Amino acid sequence: MFICSDTGPLHLADAAGANCIGLFTETDPTVYGCIGANTVNVTDIENIDVNVIFSQLGLK
Fold first, then answer.
1. Termini Cα distance of the chain
2. What's the Cα-to-Cα distance from 6 to each of 12, 16, 19, 25, 58, rounded to whole Å?
3. Measured between alpha carbons, how far is residue 41 from residues 1, 17, 33, 57 in Å?
4. What is the pLDDT of residue 12?
5. What is the pLDDT, as a whole number, of residue 59?
6. Which of 44, 36, 38 is nearest to 59 (CA)?
7. Integer Cα distance of 53 and 10 in angstroms
8. Hey, what long-range contacts does 36-42 have (CB within 8 A, 24 or more apart)?
9. Are 16 and 35 in contact (CB under 8 A)?
């Protein structure tokens, strides 16, 4: 699991196929977000629901 803001390391982890949670506040995830199958782009970091994120990643 790789959790990171919208930076180069996040996109490298996404390209490598890691489970990624991208944290986006100023940048638009529809333009700059992670595109891998096992990624979640979070825009509302004040209300992160870990159970929803794990469900989206297919984890328990």
1. 13
2. 11, 16, 15, 8, 22
3. 13, 15, 6, 11
4. 97
5. 85
6. 38
7. 16
8. 39/14
9. no
pLDDT tens for each residue of the chain, 60 residues long:
999 999 999 999 999 999 999 999 999 999 999 999 899 999 998 999 999 999 998 887
Retrieve residue 54's tokens: 């794990």
Give me the amino acid identity at 17: G
**Given this model, what pLDDT does residue 60 score?**
75
The domain spans of the chain are 2-56
Q: Report long-range pairs for 11-16 (Cβ below 8 Å, ≥24 apart).
A: 14/39
Element (H, E) at 41: strand 39-42
Tell me which H or E stretch contains 42. strand 39-42
